[in-house]
Amino acid sequence: MWIDSHCHIDKPDFNEDRRQMLDRAADAGIDAMVVVAASDTIEGVTKTVRFAESHPNCFASIGCHPHHSSSADDKWWPALKTLALESHAVVAIGETGLDYFYDKVPREKQRDVFIAQINLANELKLPLVCHIRDAHFDAFDIFASLPVPQLIIHCFTGTSDDAEKYLELGAYISFSGIVTFKNSHELRKAAAMVPTAKLLLETDCPYLAPIPKRGKRNEPSFLPHTAEVIAKERGMSIEALAASSKEATIRAFGLPR
Ligand SMILES: [Zn+2]
Ligand SMILES: [Zn+2]
């Protein structure tokens, strides 16, 4: 019924009860999950690929998170390319992007590492999972200067105007549990205006559990809570949103049916 388009279920947070967590996901109607690498080493990224290969209905996205940009040297890009070409589980590059909220790495370095992964996605003809936080202006600047791969804007937290600009670039836009938070009025407006063909859902677990699970460790089985809020905001049924978001996710990542 659902696809969790962005999760980190290979993290140690799930070591104690991974089997049960996956059972709960299956019970909640989660048919597939895109497991996104978030490591500062190539070995860590490789582990995410192996995880996806050894778990049914799991796919991998590989890249260098903006928080880890200072670890990325020139060895990263050929290594990611080899992983993408060798493993059928790899469906995207990322997450990559710009995070000016946490600003953990100098912005110039974040931009360089982001551009390297835009180029890699273009070369491999894979979609690019983008993490853009408080940096939409710079992201649009970069996209205006380069060929733009198929973009997936993960955990979107911008305004309706930002969403509009990403849509003009052909992007898919993915919403997380943040959309359920009390103060997320602007974000709910954006979630209401994105065309169904472009709207994806994600947990980004173990982070960002939706209301009523806020504050707990997030997991894929919580995805329907986020979907419920978006369906209500859009005035569509939960079944229709399940069908459209699943179809959009299959198209965005080129997943097998
Ligand atoms: Zn992210
Ligand atoms: Zn993530």
Descriptive overview:
This protein is of the alpha/beta class. It has a single domain, classed as Metal-dependent hydrolases (TIM Barrel). Helix content is 42%, strand content 17%. It starts with a strand and ends with a helix. The mean pLDDT is 98. The structure holds zinc ion (2 copies). One zinc ion binds next to loops.
CATH topology: TIM Barrel
- The named CATH superfamily: Metal-dependent hydrolases
Structural class: alpha/beta
Strand order, sheet with most strands:
1-2-3-4-5-6-7-8
Helix content: 40-55%
Unreliable runs: none
- Strand segment count: 8
What ligand molecules are bound, each kind once? zinc ion
CATH class: Alpha Beta
Radius of gyration: 17 Å
Number of domains: 1
Q: Give the CA-based shape.
A: globular
| Helix count from the secondary structure assignment | 9
| Mean pLDDT across all amino acids | 98
Largest sheet: 8 strands, parallel
